[in-house]
Amino acid sequence: MAKQFDVLNPATEDVIAQVPDTGKDEWLAALGRAVEAQRAWAEFSPRGRAEVLRAVYEKITARTDEFARTMTKEMGKPLAEAKGEVAYGAEYFRWFAEEAVRIPGRLGRAPAGNGDIAVTRVPVGPVLAITPWNFPLAMATRKIAPAMAAGCPIVVKPAAETPLTMLLVADVIGEAVAEAGGPKDLVQILTTTDSAGLSETLMADERLRKITFTGSTAVGKILVKQSADNLLRTSMELGGNAPFVVCEDADLDLVVECAMQAKMRNGGEACIAANRFIVHESLAGEFTERLTQRMSEVTMGNGLDDGVTLGPMITAKQRDGIAELVDKAVAAGATVTTGGEVPEGKGYFYPATVLIDVPADAPILRQEIFGPVATVTTFADLNEGIAAANDTEFGLAAYGFSENVHTCHRLAEELKAGMVGINRGAISDAAAPFGGIKQSGFGREGGAEGIDEYLNVKYLAL
Ligand code: NAD
């Protein structure tokens, strides 16, 4: 029998499935089939492609419960959040179904009057997508949907921790494509424990024309270097270290609500999770008290159980990394106001935790936490608050809160990130361009911009 690997439930540590551990021959064969699929897909009109995407949206939505349960079992998030991700992940198919028929071009007279300049857009070619475990559906659909809409075949390598949701989505896409008479290998999923081998092999093959990656900055840099040999198009959605700046005149009721959203969505295992709460000193005491209260009310447990609002972390390694960041901060002088202790028993759990008096050089303020831990630091003057917010190598998301329109404008202008939420704790939207600057990478997913990542500009001199 072909090689397989285990998939675990992080809440129970039980093996819940085994999936194929594919190797080099399978990867290269998949790329060959992708090339063929592009030819067949090119025969579809933009409207024809749009209708297939729309069908995928309908089919995922109709199977929300099955998708959500699979996701909770392999990833751990509470079922209600998993259902939220199904809606969000499916939305990329609806959005890009609508974009597939709006790929822009232009025609203009050449300045010298000796002809016309026509600009059109053509599919990049076969795409490799490598995705993380934190949003097993949405991190892939925001790549698959625009690739399909643009006319590109795509091979997806999901994280080894969470391949099941992706295998389910492949079934649904396969069904929709087949019903329309399209190529069955337009979207292929390759599960493997050898991620590095897969990316090296496929990126060395000149039939591949694009790599799109969501994951850590360290791996993103390796892939960008590897992409140089064949000068592949690249999109890199990497790590974050989001600041959450609370100004003197902010509305604390709103702030606390948004703080819980920005911190606790996905148990903090989100690249746009607020890592650093930077609060004006006049509000810091009350903010900490109210945040501590809300965090201590979080119910930790198996995501399939009713009432659970915080599931396990994905692996023991991830949980231990969070515990280490907290312990180092405490050793350096920080105080825990709630949480901070790894519970006994099965499952990779870490509790909702708040830390105050964190020294400016503590690693927890520098690195992505990727867990349910909030750090609170203070500022006296907004210049100082904004400088602290921007004092990070990352630039994915930032959040700012004020009731003064001039201060809001200033925060929007001066917070250095690809995405800024003003008086908002939840910013993700399939219709908006998601992506970062600095060590958070480049490229955008979603919005009108998302499809450009899969199109080459072609100029026709007429
Ligand atoms: P990771 O970089 O370890 O893994 C991501 C993917 O890359 C997985 O599929 C993994 O198997 C694969 N991979 C690992 N090493 C590889 C290698 N050498 N070559 C090729 N592929 C390799 O990241 P993770 O721990 O799974 O995910 C968490 C990270 O993802 C965080 O840093 C988070 O901020 C980031 N993330 C970013 C976004 C975004 O849109 N910017 C969204 C979600 C997560």
UniProtKB/TrEMBL annotation:
Keywords, ordered alphabetically: Oxidoreductase
- The answer to whether the entry has keyword Oxidoreductase is yes
**Aldehyde dehydrogenase domain span:** 3-459
Q: Which domain of life is it from?
A: Bacteria
Question: Catalytic residues?
Answer: E237
PROSITE patterns in alphabetical order: ALDEHYDE_DEHYDR_GLU
Family to which this protein belongs: Belongs to the aldehyde dehydrogenase family.
**Name this protein carries in UniProt:** NAD-dependent succinate-semialdehyde dehydrogenase
Q: Which organism is it from?
A: Corynebacterium haemomassiliense
